[in-house]
Specification:
about 210 residues; rod-shaped; about 0% strand
């Protein structure tokens, strides 16, 4: 107990370990579901530590694929032993002292049932998820602003395109008018030359 700095009764330790396993399960579940949709490694790391503050240590002990239910169904914690099967110190005198204090403890047994553990885990997770809502709302607002900005940009580009199209149309109409004027001028000049030629030929015959 002195080496591990664990305080409290054996039931307290069992309950605490079950709770820690539950937080690891929550973190693993989040990682396989919602975590797969997050691209930011720093945010993933932050959320894992919020769900399971001792994530690294627990992964080293139980693995990243740890399953809480199967672990608890096969765990020695569910077996009624008169004495714990794990030794926490290399000093037998410390172990004997711990076992003696445990057997003589007058503390009330701690409710460490699955329902209680699940309630604690849900409360813990809810407490983490609630602060994340402002971040989600902020992200939605950013996406909405980006969408509106994109629409505005499209409107500007559309207006510019229509403006250029109108300028091209006006230039085309102007050139068309100029061509028509030149053509009419040539026609008038030709008609004038023909008329002068006819007059000249008429007087020549006389």
């Amino acid at each position: 107990m002195d080496e591990t700095k664990i305080s409290g009764t054996w039931n307290t330790f069992k309950c605490k370990l079950r709770y820690l396993k539950g937080t690891l399960q929550k973190a693993n579940t989040w990682m396989k579901t919602k975590g797969a949709e997050v691209d930011d490694p720093a945010r993933i790391r932050e959320t894992l530590l919020q769900l399971c503050p001792h994530y690294d240590q627990l992964v080293d002990m139980f693995g990243a694929d740890f399953n809480f239910e199967s672990s608890m169904s096969n765990s020695v914690w569910n077996t009624n032993y008169d004495q714990p099967r794990f030794i926490f110190s290399n000093d037998d005198s410390l172990n004997a002292e711990f076992l003696k204090s445990e057997s003589g403890s007058s503390m009330d047994p701690i409710d460490c049932s699955d329902s209680v553990i699940e309630t604690e885990l849900n409360n813990h997770q809810n407490g983490i998820e609630e602060p994340q809502k402002p971040h989600i709302d902020s992200a939605k607002k950013i996406v909405e602003l980006d969408y509106k900005e994109a629409l505005l940009q499209l409107e500007v580009e559309k207006f510019q395109w229509l403006k250029e199209k109108e300028l091209l149309r006006m230039k085309f109409e102007e050139k068309k008018f100029e061509s028509a004027v030149k053509l009419r001028k040539l026609e008038l000049q030709q008609e004038e030359r023909i008329a002068m030629y006819e007059i000249k030929m008429k007087y020549k015959d006389k």
